[in-house]
Amino acid sequence: MEEMTLGTILAVFEEIFGKGLFWAMVAVAVVITVAYIYVLIRDREMSMRKFLLAQLSMPIGGIAAVWFVLAVTRSGLQHMGGPIDALLLLGIFGAGAVGFAILVYVAQSLVRGKQTEN
Known about the structure:
By secondary structure, the protein is mainly α. It has helices spanning 6-17, 19-43, 48-56, 58-72, 83-112.
């Protein structure tokens, strides 16, 4: 691998997760992002109450993301080879936490609708 291109990165992710699962995850991420943008435009502001609940759910999303990656790759914590693996797991935890927080915020907004705060 001489160059790091978008095609190379896509090929690596397709190899890790499998073509179908990878593109399904991309589609889910796009749908959640579009729903988040819709909610922000519809409400014209962020609800701090919903945002707090979304932030409190972040550890659940982080743990789920790490578990998901370890399960899909048929790996385990005993296979960690060094500091780069720990950094990668922290990155996965962070991405899962942020993604889950966005999902929780969107779900609250779509189910409850816009609420006025006092």
